[in-house]
Amino acid sequence: MKNTIPFLFAINKTNAVLSRRLSGHGLDFSDFTILYHLNAAPEGKLRRIDLADKLGLTASGITRMLLPLEKLHIVERDASDDDARARYASLTPAGKTLLQDATATIEMKTEDFFPETSEDELAKFIKLLDEINK
Amino acid sequence: MKNTIPFLFAINKTNAVLSRRLSGHGLDFSDFTILYHLNAAPEGKLRRIDLADKLGLTASGITRMLLPLEKLHIVERDASDDDARARYASLTPAGKTLLQDATATIEMKTEDFFPETSEDELAKFIKLLDEINK
DNA sequence: GCGATATACTTGATATATCAATTAATTAAA
DNA sequence: TTTAATTAATTGATATATCAAGTATATCGC
Lengths: 134, 134
Prior knowledge:
The structure is a homodimer. Chain A is mainly α. Chain A has 6 helices and 3 strands, in the order ααβααββαα. Chain A has a 3-stranded antiparallel sheet with strand order 1-3-2. In chain A, β2 and β3 form a beta hairpin. In chain A, α2 crosses α5. At the A-B interface, α1, α2, α5 and α6 of A face α1, α2, α5 and α6 of B. Chain A binds a DNA duplex through α1 and α4.
């Protein structure tokens, strides 16, 4: 039997530590994640449910996370042409600028996170995590 | 420059997914983590601040997490002999029983998480995460 | 085409964590 | 040795997520 539990503990702890360490520009790490995914998406927009899936959150969680970002005009909200239930989220120009700044900060803060881990190993770990996330 | 950010996203998402998937016996995954660490500690007890460190939380967070567990007589609270500021947390007999049950459930649920990952790789991954957590 | 199901999203009630401030005790330092 | 700095824990105010329930729209099966 594989010793999975300590592995889960480590993920849990890393998450807690990162959440506290990687905030800046008025954004916490989850906010940053949202901005990043919106920017990377085709046409720069995502349905709220797809955004929820990218973060592993519920639809409800995304509704609540987007609220302050919309209020600050960092993210905007659009109807969908082909599905009246769906709403798109996308970055405003201010949101794009903010994302650039936040990305620079986070890249700086995380630069030395894995001094001895190769790009290959990192990719393998991501694949492993994605396996769980399915 | 290493592509660290997608790795952080994956951790974040796995954490969210696990938190939702691995609850049972009235415990969420963080509760389970607390019980597990208390049981594994020398003499079955830990100072609250050390418990916080194990989970990567703040002292405040631990105070609040322990509250309902103490109320339900799963965890109990003791003074320290040599430091009047510190309080120990430890499992009650009911807490130990509950931990056993919860462990069985979680092991069952996570059994097939890494079908193709060796024990070695898992250990390497844990080491990598611990590096970040320091 | 129409009724049953499923999907996208929001809201109310609640639980979980944070930070900043506070209290109390310990340790360091002058 | 008594003042200053640090540490452990708690609390108030606040932010983040959950689940369950509800609304509106889409889709599936017949």
